[in-house]
Amino acid sequence: MTTTFETQRAALADVVAIPVTPFAEDGSVDPGTYRALLRRLLDGGITTLTPNGNTGEFYALTPDERRLVTELTVEEAGDRSAILVGVGHDVPTAVASARHARELGAQMVMVHQPVHPYVSQSGWVDYHRAIAEAVPELGVVPYIRNAQLTGARLAELADACPNVIGVKYAVPDAAKFAAFARDAGLERFVWVAGLAEPYAPSYFSAGATGFTSGLVNVAPSVSLNMIEALRSGDYPTAMKVWEQIRRFEELRAANGSANNVTVVKEALASLGLCRREVRPPSRPLPESERAEVAAIAAGWAI
């Protein structure tokens, strides 16, 4: 029987939340706080979670910590959310992580962009094919940040691996996204705007039906307001939300996104929800800049 992945596809056409990974005072992952943050997302109406995403500091976690985060997410979410587990690094590591996700009952994996300095387009296909073929029961979502990759290569991958069902597209170019999606097959995949709320309106106009979010950790209702407006084609309302979050996202994107996770954790810390600490190569926000983030978070009246 052929798997259609209809449930997984529907889950991607939504706010795809990337939970932060909170740390305890001793620097270890804080399971209790992580569970509390997940409950807050779930209670706020979020139904798709991506443990081990970039906002979760994927690259700063140890293999054991990544497994722990996956386990905590699946346990806490139960049947309240679809789980899209971030996997990556070398192929054996990514495959082991994907199989672990499958054993726990997760429905999908997101394959992080390869960090190897020399990535050929055919090698990109080979990398993702090895992972997708190891877990044919799971939906597979490549995370694309490579502006040189062509849509034809994604189509080639999906020809070999029908479980490649969606794409987290994170190249900051709406025109390139529109062309890439049509070259790969606009209706063939679920297109997720991988640069979150700031790019969601432009990417939705070109065919995206979901977007990722780190901001959602702070204000789930704000992210849900945006996707509701985009689904209904109400771009003026979506852009009012865009204006509401603009400064917060500018702070995250400054200096090559140096404070992408830092600003989210600072906002959560200002609300008393988790500690502000991040791991190198990120660093906590300077004390002089914390008040602005706290004021933005407080202004969302969550």
UniProtKB/TrEMBL annotation:
Belongs to the DapA family. Coiled coil: none annotated. Gene3D superfamilies: Aldolase class I (3.20.20.70). Pfam families: DHDPS (PF00701). The keyword Lyase applies. SMART domains: DHDPS. GO terms for molecular function: 4-hydroxy-tetrahydrodipicolinate synthase activity. Pyruvate binds at T55. It comes from the Bacteria. The keyword Transferase does not apply. This is Dihydrodipicolinate synthase. Keywords: Lyase. The active site is at Y143 (proton donor/acceptor), K168 (schiff-base intermediate with substrate).
